[in-house]
């Protein structure tokens, strides 16, 4: 992610324009990088201008304590307040990785924090979904991690976002893992992976995006699929990659479905 996200901070308006040009219909911005468009009225106007829906809002925090810090809780509650203006969007919770030390205790704390944040959002009528990731410093990247954390989620207030690239990067088969926890899925992230060392532009890697999409179609999945391309090309020219991914979905992925 370019500059840990700072490179494109405040460029959400431009992103919306490119996403619309690529043929996508929804966006999932990261809450703390939205710039002026964190204002719900400005955001609604910009979304309408480009014909794009707010599919979800990523809430990314470190969450390293036994409970939220005062600052973390404030950020979470501000994100929830924004989503009260967009009741059809999902609150996508994700931990910023900082290391696998004190793993068992920190996984337990993470589950409790995610459940707490999700409960507060749920009480406001907002759907929630937890998003694991796979850097080597992440505390939920392996099959063992998934079992502990996913099975600790309060299913009444949050679902799970399988990110197919992060799953394969953690040495798991994406479709197998999705079938195992199908009941939790309420949001999906796509990226491609080639293992050299990690990401590649969509369609050029080893993730069976056609097979996964076919399965989602077969089970009548009705939520969003967010394309989150993290290949090296995306760091150099994110506009090009967004347009490429839109074309690949239209010309390669969709025609391959039954």
TrEMBL record:
A Pfam family per the record: AP_endonuc_2
Keyword Isomerase among record annotations: yes
Domain Xylose isomerase-like TIM barrel positions: 17-243
GO molecular function terms listed in the Swiss-Prot or TrEMBL record: isomerase activity
SUPFAM superfamilies, A to Z: Xylose isomerase-like
Keywords: Isomerase
PANTHER family: HYDROXYPYRUVATE ISOMERASE, INOSOSE DEHYDRATASE
Protein name as catalogued: Sugar phosphate isomerase/epimerase
Organism field: Lacihabitans soyangensis
Taxonomic path: Bacteria, Pseudomonadati, Bacteroidota, Cytophagia, Cytophagales
């Amino acid at each position: 992610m370019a500059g840990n996200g700072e490179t494109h901070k405040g460029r959400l308006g431009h992103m919306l324009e490119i996403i619309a040009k690529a043929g996508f219909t929804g966006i999932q911005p990261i809450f703390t990088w939205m710039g002026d468009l964190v204002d719900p009225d400005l955001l609604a106007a910009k979304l309408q201008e480009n014909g794009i829906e707010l599919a979800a809002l990523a809430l990314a925090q470190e969450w390293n304590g036994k409970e939220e810090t005062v600052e973390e809780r404030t950020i979470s509650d501000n994100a929830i307040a924004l989503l009260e203006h967009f009741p059809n969007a999902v609150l996508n919770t994700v931990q910023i990785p900082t290391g696998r030390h004190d793993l068992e205790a920190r996984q337990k704390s993470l589950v409790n924090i995610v459940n707490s944040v999700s409960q507060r959002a749920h009480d406001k009528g907002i759907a929630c979904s937890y998003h694991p990731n796979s850097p080597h410093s992440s505390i939920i990247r392996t099959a063992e991690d998934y079992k502990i954390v996913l099975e600790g989620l309060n299913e009444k207030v949050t679902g799970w976002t399988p990110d197919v690239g992060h799953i394969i990067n953690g040495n798991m088969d994406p479709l197998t893992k999705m079938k195992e926890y199908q009941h939790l899925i309420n949001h999906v992230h796509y990226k491609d992976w080639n293992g050299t060392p990690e990401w590649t532009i969509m369609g050029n890697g080893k993730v069976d995006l056609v097979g996964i999409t076919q399965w989602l179609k077969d089970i009548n999945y009705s939520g969003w699929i967010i394309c989150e391309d993290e290949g090296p090309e995306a760091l150099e020219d994110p506009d090009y990659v967004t347009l490429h991914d839109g074309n690949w979905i239209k010309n390669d992925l969709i025609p391959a479905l039954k």
